[in-house]
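Would you be willing to look carefully at the protein I have copied below?

:::
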Amino acid sequence: GMSIGGLSAETGLHKSTVHRLLTSMCARGYVQRDAETSVYRAGMRLCELSSYIVDNLDIVERARASLERLEQCTDETVHLVMRDDKDIVYIHKVDNGSSAIRMFSRIGMRLPLYCTGVGKAILATWDTAEVRDVWQHSDVHAWTEHTIVDEDAFFREIDKVRQLGYALDNEENELGVRCIAAAIPDYRGRASYAISLSAPVSRMTDQRVAELRAPLMAARDEIARALGG
């Protein structure tokens, strides 16, 4: 939460303007005010809007059956993400119900393109100049000790993804979790969406990655065809 003063400083708006906007947003349920501290927080109405947007994303509905089949045949957690500026946003998740470990990912969660398997898979379908622009305008830092923060190493990784057709996340944004990801290309071969399979590193060995590649790519192709890619 934030106070009116904090919001005023953050936005550059006058306190009276911030107060007027907050009053309107509170009345509509987008913001909630703590009566004791006068701190404002996001309201549940935003969750309703978020759910509405996700439910009405055509790709979620078209991909749902393919993703559920992918989880059933691999017994691993499946994610569907979309690109939003320099980030990816999780828009659908099929949990592996038998796993004792739960991924920290959740629908609506946002992470940078550069440090995720799904993000690297998406970037690999773009021109190098566009990828460089994303890198240069991202807040590149180490989320874990495995995050790639060197520019040359990052572009070598993107070249590798282009060669293989899939990307890996080797504990780059969450320790203990490894992912294999594939972008969903449109009719131009360019992607704004991607899917992944995630598992604890103890289970996601190189051999397991090799086993998961075929079902992952088959699901990717199925979704791409449904979207006209």
Q: What stands out?
A: The helical segments are 4-11, 15-27, 44-55, 58-74, 117-123, 128-136, 151-164, 206-226.
